[in-house]
Structure formats: structure tokens, C-alpha cells
Hints:
mainly alpha; elongated
Amino acid sequence: MSVYGRILLAGFGSLMLLLGALGFQHIGELAPCPMCIWQRWPHVGAVLIALAALTLMWRLRRPLAALGAVAMAGNAALGLFHAGVEQKWWEGPSSCSGVDPSSASAEDMLKSLEESSTLVMCDQIVWDLFGISMAGWNAIISLGLALLWIFAALPKTPTRYVAPT
């Protein structure tokens, strides 16, 4: 596959993930948490990078592909962090994670209750497939897209020279 094909496929993959997230939000009525929203921005960036690399800035396609790889690797890390928060492996941001009743004051619990009516919690799994949440799938697919971007950023491998006989 050519560099252009890899960039096109990587940008299309990010576009499909964005459309899927928006479909879950607007058609499936699954409101996103703040960390879900954060995970959308690298995909927006990747789509814009792909468009730039394939049109206006095609001469910079390899450096742009490297930038796309950084965006997707960062997004894979963010998705993994979010999946870990959902699985209770570690704590998430206090602004969107549940309060542990055993360690919280009454004031913290009341504040959490007030915010939970308007805020989707980052530590709750609202949808999963084969036991993997949306954040987990985003991490897995973003890692694959990062690899695709890396392959697009690598210089073309030279053809093997065979000496004439």
C-alpha cells in the first residue's frame, strides 16, 4: 500500500470512530463523559492531518504522518487510561469520577450528587462489546491507527540492488 493509501486509511479510520461516537451520542442517546470528549479531539486532528497530507501539503506527507502517529498514540494512551478508570484500576479525574463513600466527607458526597445529575461519570461503563468498553475499543483501534500512521511516515524502503552479471 502506498503512503497515500495509508494516510487515507488512517484518516478514514479516525473519521469513522468520530462518526461512531456521534452516532452513539445522538442516535443511541448515550451521553459522553468528559474523558470521552477528550478522546475525540485527537481523531479530529488526525482527520485534518490526513486532509492536509493528501491535498494542500502533500510534500510534507511523511512529517504529517509522524504527527498523526503521535496523535493516535496519545489517544491510545488516553483511551487506556479511561478504560482503567472504568475498571477501577486507578482513579480518574475527580471532576468526573465517583466519590468513594468510605473516604468522602458529607460535603463531598452532596457535591458529587449535585454534579452527577448533569455530568456523565467517567468511571461508569455505559456500553461494551465482548467485555471491552468504548474507551477500551478506542485505545485498541487508536493503537492500530498509530501503527498505520507510522508506516506512512517511514521512508520508502529502497529496492534491492542486484549487480549486473
